[in-house]
Amino acid sequence: MDRRQRFEKYGWLISKTQSILKHYSCPESCNASCCKHHIIDLYRKEYEKILKNVDKESVNIFKSNAVKSELEGCYKAINAVGQCSLLINSKCRIYDNRPEACRTFPFVIFSDVEAGFGLTLLLCPMSVNIIRDYAQWYKSVNSTMYNQLNVVYEQHKDINKNNDFCVQMKEHNLDSFIEFLERKYSLVSFLCSFSRIWGSEAVEKKMRGLTPHFSHHILLFYLFLYRSTANRLATP
Fold it and tell me: Which of 9, 23, 188, 230 has its CA 20 to 30 A from that of 223?
């Protein structure tokens, strides 16, 4: 794979991770452990772009803590093994301009001799929910993988910090998995709106763990309730 193909592959994987991550957010219980146990590598253009877009104090902190990256193709690195120097009270002071490695976390894009790049998912308080959904997607594809991922989810669903365990994300699964998430969360969003209208926070919370198939049945139930209520209101 030549340099141009590697660049395109990398960009493709970045876009896929963002299409997945838009459906998730870090739980309030998270203590930003992803900013305390990793080395953050940056490409030269990315490093220079961050320096141009953050405040002067952040620039000084960033520069004084950046060292030469040991990762092939990267320019600088921030050692966040103890704690990232830009982390204040578990909040990133340059969050809107954070490095790409931070934007894609808990996904990690790694170099691969044959494929150019590969994708893996690290365990953290947020990614266990991705694993739960990945297991649900696998249920109709491969029962063995469904069972294995479900075991991982059950074992780690209550973790409150990062874990070195990782799950390989096969690239030929990504588009189908993203479509699965789009269907699931468009339905869940709609159903949660109904739940708020009906004043049930418990129901709304439960909705977020449903599969698209089961959500569809609940949607029909809510539509039945909606029609029944509308008919009653329309009756003189």
Answer: 23
DSSP per-residue letters across 12-69: HHHHHHHHHHTT----TT---GGGTSEEEEE-HHHHHHHHHHS-HHHHHHHHHHEEE-
> In terms of domains, do 164 and 184 share one?
no
Q: Are residues 114 and 63 in the same domain?
A: yes
Residue with tokens 């008919």: 231
The domain boundary, picked from 141, 169, 197, lies at 169
Within the chain, how many helices (H) and strands (E) appear? 9, 8
> 10-residue block means of pLDDT along the chain (236 residues)?
84 95 87 82 91 93 89 82 84 91 91 82 92 94 94 89 84 95 78 54 51 53 51 42
For the whole model, what pTM was predicted? Answer: 0.76
Looking at the structure, tell me whether residues 89 and 204 fall in a common domain.
no
